[in-house]
């Protein structure tokens, strides 16, 4: 239907019909809010993990799933579940978010079908006799004794006593032919969450905040997402990613966040560093391309990461030169271990006026990167913006390289750029603004 047709039909509905339409979850549910059919092993799932960003619709999905279980509503349930557990981070969260919240259990029911909430008894009762009991993850022992046919756990990654609470809940999921549980959470790299994600009987759905944009305030999308998009916090809270630090890595995400600024000041010198791949096959390493600059007082600012994957020599050379032109850089620094003079020749074929500074690696990647990491710890390097892929490599680079075994091409280019600005002889200064 066109917007005009939809508006015409909606205007013709009375209040009860509008409420019935608004509570028809099967019409409005996003794909990530619908229960999966099977677990990865092909069997019916026992745990449904819904991992998503803030405002992605996790609470609404949890409330609707519990409503369907309590009333036996198809297509989300085949029969009513008599005893249900609702577990939140605190009693306040269970009451204010899961039950009484704008997307909570009471709100998703039509008025005539709404269950009775008894705060003093911490229970919700439906007209068919189904009962849901509220529990706090701050008190795992409260789950000792009761038994349930299904459960909804919210924000499990934030639970203070996550392991103990989860264990007690599992012992209570013993009613019916197939007790199941839904876990809705913004991710954190907790051992419990990672273990559940690997469980063959767990089904996982993911969703970033943006998929539910139509139900969010435009100012939230404009301001909050613009401010945090690409940052560690934004990737966790908005994109629903599990962001981990490698314990033996040279950089940590917390360190990088302290080095982030919105823009760079006037710079004395700018370089674009290139770490070319050995070949242009589909399985070849990426061509790392990073721009950085330095101020007259020695502060370094990372300006861009234009790394390109599986590119021909002419393609990565054109990309690097475009970045050089964009920032009006002083030089293009290129590692020549993989190709020698061929690297300089490829760049000159695209633009012979580009000043190429050839550098050759004589030490291992770790030894080259270590002094650059020290500059970060000293607060001398800043990131003018967000560079998620580059920062992922930085926080995953240890003495043995990246955990994936691949070459740290973005990081190599970063190291060459900062090394050229700080540890090599600098050209005559000329001040410019960005």
Notes on the structure:
Residues 425-434 have low confidence and may be disordered. The protein has two domains: 3-228, Rossmann fold (3-Layer(aba) Sandwich), CATH 3.40.50.300; 253-422, Nucleotidyltransferase, domain 5 (2-Layer Sandwich), CATH 3.30.420. Strands 3-4-5-2-6-7-1-8 form an eight-stranded mixed beta sheet, sandwiched between helices. Strands 9-15-12-11-10-13-14 form a seven-stranded mixed beta sheet, sandwiched between helices. Helix 11 packs across helix 12 (341-350) and helix 13 packs across helix 15 (409-422). The protein is an alpha/beta fold and 434 residues long. The chain has helices at 3-12, 15-22, 25-28, 58-71, 91-99, 162-172, 191-198, 218-228, 232-237, 253-258, 313-326, 341-350, 365-377, 388-394, 409-422, and strands spanning 47-52, 83-88, 116-118, 123-125, 131-136, 150-154, 180-185, 202-207, 260-261, 269-275, 288-294, 300-305, 331-335, 356-359, 381-384. Strand 6, helix 6 (162-172) and strand 7 (180-185) form a beta-alpha-beta unit.
């Amino acid at each position: 239907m066109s917007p005009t047709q939809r508006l015409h039909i909606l205007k013709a509905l009375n209040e009860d019909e509008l409420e019935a339409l608004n509570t028809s979850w099967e019409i409005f549910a996003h794909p990530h809010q619908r229960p999966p059919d099977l677990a990865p092993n092909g069997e019916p799932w026992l745990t449904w993990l819904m991992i998503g960003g803030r405002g992605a619709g996790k609470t609404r999905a949890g409330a609707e799933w519990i409503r369907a279980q309590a009333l036996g509503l198809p297509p989300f349930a085949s029969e009513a579940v008599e005893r249900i557990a609702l577990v939140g981070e605190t009693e306040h969260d269970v009451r204010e978010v899961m039950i009484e919240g704008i997307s909570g259990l009471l709100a998703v029911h039509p008025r005539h079908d709404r269950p009775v909430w008894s705060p003093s008894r911490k229970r919700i009762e439906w007209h068919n006799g189904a009962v849901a009991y509220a529990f706090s993850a701050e008190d795992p022992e409260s789950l000792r004794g009761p038994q349930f046919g299904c459960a909804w756990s919210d924000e499990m990654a934030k639970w203070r006593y996550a392991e103990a609470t989860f264990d007690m809940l599992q012992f209570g999921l013993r009613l019916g032919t197939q007790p199941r549980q839904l876990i809705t959470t913004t991710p954190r790299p907790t051992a419990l969450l990672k273990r559940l994600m690997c469980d063959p009987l767990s089904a996982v759905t993911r969703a970033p905040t943006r998929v539910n944009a139509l139900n969010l305030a435009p100012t939230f999308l404009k301001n909050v997402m613009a401010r945090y998009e690409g940052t560690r916090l934004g990737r966790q809270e908005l994109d629903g990613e599990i962001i981990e630090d490698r314990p033996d890595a040279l950089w940590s995400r917390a360190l990088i966040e302290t080095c982030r600024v919105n823009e760079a000041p006037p710079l004395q010198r700018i370089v674009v560093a290139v770490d070319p791949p050995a070949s242009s096959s589909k399985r070849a390493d990426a061509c790392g391309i990073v721009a950085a600059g330095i101020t007259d007082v020695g502060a370094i600012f990372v300006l861009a990461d234009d790394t390109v994957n599986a590119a021909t020599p002419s393609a990565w050379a054109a990309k690097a030169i475009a970045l050089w032109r964009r920032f009006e850089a002083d030089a293009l620094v290129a590692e020549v271990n993989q190709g020698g003079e061929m690297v300089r020749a490829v760049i000159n074929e695209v633009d012979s006026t580009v000043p190429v500074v050839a550098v050759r690696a004589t030490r291992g990647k770790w030894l080259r990167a270590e002094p650059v990491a020290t500059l970060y710890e000293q607060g001398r390097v800043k990131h003018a913006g967000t560079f998620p892929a580059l920062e992922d490599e930085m926080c995953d680079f240890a003495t043995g390289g990246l955990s994936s075994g691949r070459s740290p091409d973005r990081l190599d280019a970063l190291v060459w750029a900062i090394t050229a600005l700080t540890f090599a002889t600098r050209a005559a200064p000329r001040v410019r603004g960005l």
